Amino acid sequence: MIEIKDLHKNFDDLEVLKGVDLTIRPAEVISILGGSGSGKSTMLRCINGLEEISSGSVVVDGLDVTKKDELKAVRKKCATVFQQFDLYPHLKVIENITLAPVQVLGVSKTDATNKARALLESVGLGDKADVYPAQLSGGQKQRVGICRALAVGPDYILLDEVTSSLDPEMTAEVLEILKNLANDGMTMISVTHEIEFAREISNRIVFLDQGKILCDLPTADFFSADGGMADPRIAKFLSKMGTGS
Amino acid sequence: MYGDDGFTIFDLQLWAEGLGISAWVFITSSILGLLFGVLIGLIRYYRISVLGKILMLISEFLKNSPVLVQLFLVYFGIPALLMIDLSPVEAAIITLSGNTAAFIAVIVISSIDAIDKKQLEAARSFAMSEWQILKLIIYPQSLAFAMPMLVGLAINQLQVTSLVSVIGVVDLTRVGDIVNLRTFEPFIVWPVIGATYFVLAKMIGIAGSKLENRFNRYKRVTNI
Ligand SMILES: Nc1ncnc2c1ncn2[C@@H]1O[C@H](COP(=O)(O)OP(=O)(O)OP(=O)(O)O)[C@@H](O)[C@H]1O
Ligand SMILES: [Mg+2]
Questions:
Q1: In this structure, is residue A115 part of a structural domain?
Q2: Is A146 within the bounds of a domain?
Q3: Domains of chain B
Q4: Minimal-distance CA residue of chain B relative to A90
Q5: Residue of chain B with shortest Cα separation from A68
Q6: Cα–Cα distance, A81 to A64 (Å, whole number)
Q7: CATH number at residue A210
Q8: Nearest CA to A78 among A161, A160, A169?
Q9: Of B126, B137, B219, the CB nearest to A75
Q10: Could you read off the pLDDT tens digit of each residue along chain B, which spans 224 residues?
Q11: Which structural domain range is residue A67 located in?
Q12: Which chain A residue is nearest to residue B216, measuring alpha carbons?
C-alpha cells in the first residue's frame, strides 16, 4: 500500500504540491489526470524519492521514502516507466533489462537473461534482445521500458505519460500491453493524457489541479454527469481532451 | 668508418636511450595525469565541497600557461620551496602530470555533461547506487565520448615531452641535439628524431582509434 499524507513539494518559491493525500491499495489501477503543470509528474517522483519531499509523508508498505535506507527498499518495490523511455543507450536491449535485477537484486546473470527474454517475447520483441536502443522505434523502446520495469518484479508500477512520445499506432501497442498488466492484477499508478485508456484500465481516477487533488473517484463516478463531471474544471479539462459527455 | 665526426653505433644506443626516457616521461605523466585528472573531474562533478572549484582554478592555470614556464617553476621552485632534490626527470614528470591532469579534468567534465541525465535518474529509480551508476552507466558512455579527445591529448602531450630537454633531461630531443652538435648533420639527425616522434604519435593514434571503435560501437548502429 502506498500512503501519501499531506504531501507538500516546493521548488524554491514555487509550491507545486499543496497537501496531497492519496492511498493506493494493492491491485488498484489509478490514473492521475490534470492539466499541464498541475504537479502530476512531481507527485509520482515523490513516491520513489526522485524528488525530495518538502513536508508530509510518503510511505510504501510501511517504508518511509525520506529515510535513506528505506528509500532503497521502496525503489526495489516501485518500478517506473518513463515518457522518454530513458533506456541506457550503450547497453543492448537485453542488458537494459537485466541491469537492475543483476546489480540491485543479485539475480544471477543467467536467470535474469532468461526472464528478460521471456518478457521481451511477451511484448513481441523476442528478436530484439541483442540490438541497441538506437535501433528500435519509439513504440519498441517503450515496450523495452516496460520490460525493464517488470524485470525487477515490482509491487508497483509508476507510469508517467508513457505514450506521449509515441504516434497513435505505437500508442495502441503500448496501451495494449499495459491493459493486460492491469488485468493481471498489477498495481499501477499512471499519469496520462489518454482519457479513454484511463477510463478503460483504472479503478480510480485522481484529478490534480494546481497541486491539489480536486477529486479522487471510482472511474465510473468520475465520468458520470453528477460525479467528477459536475465540477466545471474537470468538465472543461475533459472537453479539451476531446472526451466526456 | 666516418672518422670523429661521423655516426657511430653509440649514436644508435643514445637514440634508444633518449627514446626510452621520452617514453618513460610520457607514459608515467599520462598515467598520473589520467588518475589525477579523473579524480579532479569527479570531485567537480559530484560537487564535493569547494575543493572542486579550487582544483578547477588550478587546472585553468595549468591549461592556460606555457608548459615551459610550469617546467621551470617546478624544477627551480619546488627544490627551493621544499628543500628537496629534484632530478630533471622527476621535475619533468611532475610538470607534465599536472598539465595533463588539467586537460583530462576538463575532458572528464565535458564528457559527463554530454550524457543524457534522465537515464541516470532511471537507474536511480531502480535502486542502483551512485557508484553502480558511475561505473556502469556514466563511465562507459563518457569514455566513448572522451576517446577522440583523449587520443588527441595524448598525441599532443607526446610532443610536449620534447620541452623537458631544456632542464637537462636527456630525452629524444636532447639526444638529437647532442648528436647533431657532434656530427653537424642536422638534415640527418632531425628528420630521424622527427620521424621517431611521428611513429610514436601514429602508434598512439592507431591504438586510440581501435579503442574508439570499440567504445563507440553502440552509437554506430543504424537507426530506423
Ligand atoms: N526541478 C524543478 N525545478 C523547478 N520547478 C519544477 C521542477 N520540476 C517541476 N517544476 C515545476 O513544477 C510544476 C509542476 O510540474 P510537473 O512536471 O509535476 O507537472 P505535470 O502535471 O506533470 O505537467 P505535464 O502534464 O506538463 O507533464 C511546473 O510548474 C513545473 O515548472
Ligand atoms: Mg508531467
A1: no
A2: no
A3: 12-222 (1.10.3720.10)
A4: B218
A5: B127
A6: 22
A7: 3.40.50.300
A8: A160
A9: B126
A10: 444 568 888 999 999 999 999 999 999 999 999 999 999 999 999 888 788 889 889 999 999 999 999 999 999 999 999 999 999 999 999 999 999 999 999 999 999 999 999 999 999 999 999 999 999 999 999 999 999 999 999 999 999 999 999 999 999 999 999 999 999 999 999 999 999 999 999 999 999 999 988 888 888 775 54
A11: 2-86+154-240
A12: A90
Spell out which residues line ligand 1, taking CB within 6 angstroms.
A 11, 14, 16, 34, 36-42
Say how far apart CA B45 and CA B32 lie, in whole Å: 20
Total tally of structural domains belonging to chain A? 1
- Which runs of consecutive H residues, i.e. helices, occur in chain A? 40-47, 68-77, 93-103, 109-122, 138-151, 168-183, 195-201, 219-223, 232-240
Question: Which whole-number Å values give the CA distances from A195 to A183, A200, A205, A237, in the listed order?
Answer: 18, 9, 10, 10
What ipTM is given for this predicted complex?
A: 0.94
Contacts of A72 in chain B (CB under 8 A): 127
A135:B222 CB<8 A: yes
Cell numbers for B169: 633531461
Is A62 part of a structural domain of the chain? Answer: yes
Report chain B residues whose CB lies below 8 A from the CB of A104. 126-128, 132
Chain B residues within 8 A (CB-CB) of chain A?
116, 118-119, 121-128, 132, 136-137, 140-141, 144, 218-219, 221-224
